[in-house]
Amino acid sequence: VLGFLVAEWTYRRYPEQPEGHLAKIRASVVNARAVADTARIVSLGDALLLGRGEAEGGGRDKDSILSDALEAVLGAVYLDGGYEAASQVVGDLFAGAIDRAAAAPGVSDYKTRLQELTVHRSGDAPRYALVTEGPDHDKRFHATVEVAAEVFGPASGTSRKRAEQEAALLACQALEGRETGGPR
User: What is a single molecular function from GO for this protein (predicted)?
Assistant: First the structure.
C-alpha cells in the first residue's frame, strides 16, 4: 500500500519529471530507514507492544520494527477506511519526505547510483557479499561490493539493506573521486 500511494503522490506532485527521476524519489521515501524516520516523527515506537527482550534491546527504535509497524498501520487504514483514507494519511505523513527527495533525489539510494555508475563505465553490475553476525534480536550485517574486480568496504549496518547501501556509498565516493581527480 505504501509504495503504491507514495508513487501516486510523487507523480501528482511532480508530473513533469521523467519516470526514472520519480522512481528515485519513491525509492528514497519508501526505504526502511526513511519509513522508520517517519514513524519516529509520530512516536509510533511508544505505541508498540513488544516482548520484554525486544523492548529491552531497543526494539522501539529499530528501523525494521518501526518501518514494518508503520506499513501495518497504513495497511489497516486502507482496509478500514479504503483508498481515500489511506491516501490522505500517506500524504499527511510523507509529503514532506517526497518534496525533500525531489530536491535531492538518489542521495540516500547509493545502490542505484552505483549501479548507474558501473553500468555506464563497464557494463557490469556491482556484486554484493554479505556476512551476518549476532543473535536474531541483535543482528549486524557487514557488506562489501565488487566493481570491476575491485572490492569496496566492508560497511556495517543493522539490516542487509543498510549495510549494502553503506558499501555502495563507499564505492561511489571512491569512483566519483577518481573521475574528479579527488582521493582514491
Answer: ribonuclease III activity
CATH 1.10.1520.10 fits 2-103, yes or no: yes
DSSP SS3 for 146 = strand
159 backbone dihedrals φ, ψ, rounded to 5°: -145, 160
Q: 110-179 has which fold? A: Double Stranded RNA Binding Domain (3.30.160)
pLDDT for 120: 77
Backbone angles phi, psi at 36, to 5 degrees: -65, -40
Signed CA dihedral, 53, 56, 60, 64: sign only = negative
**Cell digits for 31?**
526505504
Cβ atoms of 145 and 167 within 8 Å: the answer is yes
pLDDT means over runs of 10, the chain (184 residues):
95 88 88 92 96 92 95 98 97 92 68 84 89 90 94 91 90 76 46
pTM of this prediction exceeds 0.85? no
AA identity, residue 46? D
DSSP 8-class letter at 122: T
If residue 126 lies in a helix (H) or strand (E), which one and from where to where? none
| Grid cell for residue 94 | 510523507
Count Cβ atoms below 10 Å from residue 31 Cβ, excluding itself.
Answer: 20
